[in-house]
Each structure stands twice: as structure tokens, then as C-alpha cells.
Amino acid sequence: MALSSHDPTRCEALPAAMTAADDFKDVVPFEIRSSAEQRVPFVFNSPHSGRFYPPRFLEMSRLDKQAIRRSEDCYVEQLFGGAAALGAPLLLAHFPRAYLDVNREPWELDPRMFSDPLPSFANIRSPRVAGGLGTVPRLVGEGLDIYKTRLPLSEALSRIQGIYEPYHETLRHLLGRTQMRFGYAVLVDCHSMPASIRIGENGLRPDFIIGDRFGASAAPELTEAAIRLLAGMGYTVAYNKPYAGGFITEHYGRPARNRHAIQIEINRGLYMNERSLERRSGFDALTDDLTRFCSDLMALPDHHFRQAPPLAAE
């Protein structure tokens, strides 16, 4: 399934200076961590935990080095680091979410951010764009404006073509390779959420939220197992509210095609100080719990994930 019905390389030409390439000439924008051999049909993804903030990007921003990290899923790739040792690849970003959000459509852009007209195929009216959280975000957490001035369109083009598209190509390859080898693939999209999140009339603070696009992106047995395993460890677990899964969960979760995707949100208050960004004393214990969670989730029987082929007509 293509990410977009448009080929932006045919509509716009990159300027001679590829700014995203310059920003990440010394640091790879993302990487795959894995053991020598993939042993399970699971792929883990941490798209928002990147914390390399290019100097040029910081110069463009009105925020200081601490404030600009308010949208970052701090340390999530470390919390799920045990998945690689268990035989599942972990794709993780080094670019920050404030710079580029790969959990969006490729062209969810806010025209108010740019000094040039946007291409006609850009999605300028999505709720995420309206909230300042498009592919190239306008805001970080707590509604803070990122940029001092409007950006040239070439800035968005270079980030999308230079990082967004290769990231999703890598994720597609991981899932395709996994499905070819095992007959099905399970994507676990890993995120964190502010400790201030409350749900329900009683204002319950969930420790985790499991999202499956209201049942559309994964077999129910996968979602139910994820909730059951975490609850069995003593955590409070919510389902789909307020986070049902973003673009990645929606785009890659195709249970009828034996490809499943769930999103997991971790309350940052469990493991870090949101102001100082320092890890709390419970960080290692939570990491151990999540490694056990991953192991138990991977042990689910195969038949939960294989869609039986339709019976042939007589």
C-alpha cells in the first residue's frame, strides 16, 4: 500500500542544499537494533524517542534546548530495548519528533508555517494539522510554538524526502520480510504520554494505553493479551482512549492480510521526571517488566494471527 497517491519527487525538485542531509551528516537519522537472527514475527518501532537536535534546527527555533523536548518520548527505545535480545528487530528514530513526525501522513502540513504555497496534494485540514502537530510540527507539548519565522517549503521537502520516506521504506521492508518468513507480522508501535492524562468520569490515570484503532488494526486476541499481561503485573491499562493509534498503527495494521499493529503508550510519570527529563528510580524495574511483557506477547499462538483463506465456491 503506497503512503500517498502522489509522487512528490515529480511535483517538486529539491533545492541544491538538502537541509535534512546536512542536519544528519554525522548522525544517522534512524537505526535498526536486532539480534543476529530474527526469531519471532514481531517488529517494534519507536518513532518519537529521537533526541538528536541538529544545531541548525535549534537556531531556527524560539525554544531552548529543554522546552523543545516536551513532545519527545524520552527513553522509550531503552524501555523496549529487550525486544531485540528476544529476537525482534527494533526500529528507532534519532531525529526528534519536533523536527519531523513519521507518525503522520507524509504531507500533513500547516500552510501557516510556510512562506511558499503548499503542493495541492498536501493534507492541510486534518485535525492533527489544526492542532499544530503535522508531519513537520508547528508546536511541541503544552502548545509552544517551535519556530521564530515561517519556513521555506524546501525545508519540509527535504525532511520528508530525506528522512520520512526512507524511514517508512525501512519499516515496510521489516514487516514484509517478517511476514514472508513467518506467514504473518505483528507491529508494536511504542510511545509515551504525559503523566497528566486522565480518563473517565473518575479521572483515572492510566499507566498504559493500548490502541488498535478500535479493533481495526489487530486481531482482538493480540489487544486482549497486551491488556491482560500488563494488568497482571499490577498496572492500570486503558483501551483506545484517548489514544487509539496514529498513522503508523492505522496504515500498517491489516489483520485480514495477516499483518497486525497495536500502539502502546506508557505514562512518563512511571519512569521519569517530565521537567528535568531525568530517569526515576523505577526505570530499571519498568524495563524488566516490559521485557517480560514482550516475551509473553511473542509467545501467543500463531493461529491468533493467521487469517484463514476463504473457502472456494463449489
Written overview of the protein:
The structure is a single chain. Helices cover 29% and strands 13% of the residues. It has helices at residues 8-11, 19-23, 55-60, 76-79, 82-85, 127-130, 153-182, 220-232, 247-252, 283-298; strands at residues 30-33, 42-46, 90-93, 139-140, 144-145, 185-193, 208-211, 237-239, 259-267. A 7-stranded mixed sheet has the order 1-3-2-6-9-7-8, with helices on both faces. Strand 4 (139-140) and strand 5 (144-145) form a beta hairpin. Mean pLDDT is 92; it is low at 1-16 and 310-314.
Give the tally of β-strands: 9
Reading the helices and strands in chain order gives HHEEHHHEHEEHEEHEHEH
Structural class: alpha/beta
DSSP helix count?
Answer: 10
User: What does the overall shape look like?
Assistant: globular
Helix content: 25-40%
Termini Cα gap: 32 Å
Strand content: 5-15%
Features of this protein?
globular, disordered N terminus, 314 residues, 29% helix, alpha/beta, 9 strands, two-stranded antiparallel sheet, 13% strand, seven-stranded mixed β-sheet
Please provide a brief summary of the model:
This protein is of the alpha/beta class.
Architecture blueprint of SSEs:
Blueprint: H1 8-11, H2 19-23, E1 30-33, E2 42-46, H3 55-60, H4 76-79, H5 82-85, E3 90-93, H6 127-130, E4 139-140, E5 144-145, H7 153-182, E6 185-193, E7 208-211, H8 220-232, E8 237-239, H9 247-252, E9 259-267, H10 283-298
Parallel strand pairs: 2-3, 2-6, 6-9, 7-8
Antiparallel strand pairs: 1-3, 4-5, 7-9
